[in-house]
Amino acid sequence: MNKKLIWASIVLTIIGVLDSTYLLIYKISKNNAMCLGNGDCSTVNASSYSEIYGIPVSLLGLLAYLVILALLIFELSNIFTKENSNLLVFGISLVGVLFSAYLTYIEFFVIYAVCPFCIVSAVVITFLFIISIISLVKTSK
Q1: Low-confidence ranges of the chain (pLDDT < 70)
Q2: Residue 52: in which H helix or E strand, if any?
Q3: According to the model, what pLDDT value does residue 37 have?
């Protein structure tokens, strides 16, 4: 991956880490003041879709962003080969995009409530996915 793409990905991943951490703290604390005036945030966070087998979705997102961040940092320090890191970031972000699309569908068409922090995460993972595709295309040439 070229250095500009890596740095763009690192910035996006840090935004994802911060967003997921915020959502996890909100999930654990159940502090509705953290919704920043958006009541739909509490509806989404209290729904059964905000957990998988008791594990908060925000924790899964946080872990995914941390793994991506580690891969990007390792790539900068040449610990992993470019190809392996690119493929791993592509795979993780692909799963993230698909899962985010599912959760966004649930927000709009099942629980009829939208959490702006969840949308931020969906946008971030989508951009990471796009960058990973660009990187894979550039390295395959």
Answers
A1: 1, 37-39, 78-83, 141
A2: strand 51-52
A3: 64
Cβ–Cβ under 8 Å, residues 28 and 54? no
Q: Write the CATH number for 135.
A: 1.20.1440.130
Give the rounded distance of the alpha carbon of 61 from its chain centre.
5
pTM: 0.92
Phi and psi at residue 34, in whole multiples of 5°? -70, -10
Q: Give the whole-angstrom CA distance, residue 119 versus residue 5.
A: 22
Cα gap 41→100, rounded to integer Å = 16
Q: For residue 84, give its domain range.
A: 3-140
User: pLDDT tens, 58-79?
Assistant: 999 999 999 999 999 888 776 6
Report, in angstroms and rounded to the nearest whole number, the Rg of the chain calculated over CA atoms: 16
Q: How many domains does the chain have?
A: 1
- Its sign, for the CA torsion 91, 67, 3, 23, is positive
The pLDDT of residue 36: 72
Token pair for 11: 């910035």
